[in-house]
Amino acid sequence: MSGALRGWILYDQSCGFCARWVPFWGPWLKRQGYGFRPLQDPWVAQQTGLQSEDLLQDIRLITQDGQIVCGADVYRQVLASSRWTRPIALLTRLPLLKQTFDGGYRLFARHRYRVSEACGWTPPGGHVR
Fold first, then answer.
1. Biggest alpha carbon distance in the chain?
2. Is residue 129 assigned to a domain?
3. pTM (2 d.p.)
4. Cβ atoms 21, 29 nearer than 8 A
5. What is the pLDDT along the chain (129 residues), one digit of tens a residue?
């Protein structure tokens, strides 16, 4: 995709995994029409109206039309933006796979700092939250 921005992916910069994942995929995300910013950026709180404790619960996406998408649905929406990854997005919407995908995301989100620490992935600033 070229031209229009589809939205902003908002990630937890204090999570080593998240702080590595988003920049790694950054070129592909940009080609799909997504920008990205840390959830800790003051701009994010202004745009969402959420307090930092609430913001840091999930990855989020602010769409071009201002809709806020969170959690596993961010991955579904981003995956649906490319013809190569669209089949994966469709699979994650099937009833049994949706529950599994959502549960896997929720489990990871709750333990992302532990995963980051176990992998030795420190975020910018050198320490895991």
1. 40
2. no
3. 0.88
4. no
5. 445 799 999 999 999 999 998 889 999 999 999 999 999 999 999 999 988 788 899 999 999 999 999 999 999 999 999 999 999 999 999 999 999 999 999 999 999 999 999 999 988 766 555
